[in-house]
Amino acid sequence: KQNYTYEDYRRVIEINLYRKKLNEVLGKAVPTSGEEVHARHILVKTFDEAQKAEARLKAGEDFAKVAAEVSLDTGSKAKGGDLDWFPRGQMVKPFEDAVFGLTVMQVSDPITTTFGVHIIQVLEKDPNHPLDPNTLQQKRAQAISEWLQKTRESPDTHIERFFSPEYVPADVKRLTGLQSDIPVAPQQ
């Protein structure tokens, strides 16, 4: 029905098997752990608000209590500002530079980012923390993408396109104007 020959079908299956094996091999090369921090933060709009929150912390108030009361981050506010574990490359640069520069239980000075002004506290650090499944999947996808880009740019690479207009249904050809000998219906 799709105008596939037996050889066409075998070629599609072969390409899919190669793709699956490539993903498997490149995926194994991605580390499953890495440097991560477990941190919490208080996010406010202005530097003045951050200084007020900082003063409360220096006076001995609990970080989680202050975060729950004043933080604008709706995702972490209810958890006392807890951001859980995260690796490098997941946060905006000024925040990341600050958080990875802190020692455990250290509270940062106010840090300004595009989101507002943060006060950060590092709860834990682990140079070899297991990556969560989403981060691992992102890193594997990135490795595949980088490999494909590098391979495409290589002068030794031959790219074979497995596409033929004869496999496109006539209705699609008509709507897209894929073939010049098929009239395209006028737009109304």
Summarize it.
The protein is α+β, with helices and mostly antiparallel strands and 188 residues long. It contains 6 helices and 4 strands. The chain starts with 5 loop residues before the first helix and ends in a 12-residue tail after the last helix.
Structure, explained:
With 188 residues, the chain is α+β, with helices and mostly antiparallel strands. 43% of the residues lie in helices and 19% in strands. Helix 1 (6-28) packs across helix 5 (133-153).
What percent of the residues sit in helical stretches (DSSP H or I)? Answer: 40-55%
Question: What oligomeric state is this?
Answer: single chain
The total of helices stands at 6
Order of helices and strands: HEHHEHEEHH
- C-alpha geometry: elongated
Cα-to-Cα separation, first versus last residue: 32 Å
Proportion of residues in β-strands: 15-25%
Q: Uncertain spans, ≥5 residues at pLDDT below 50? A: 180-188
**Estimated radius of gyration:** 26 Å
Largest sheet: 4 strands, antiparallel
Order of neighbouring strands in the sheet with most strands: 2-1-4-3
- Average pLDDT metric: 87
Helix-and-strand structural type: alpha+beta
Strands, total number: 4
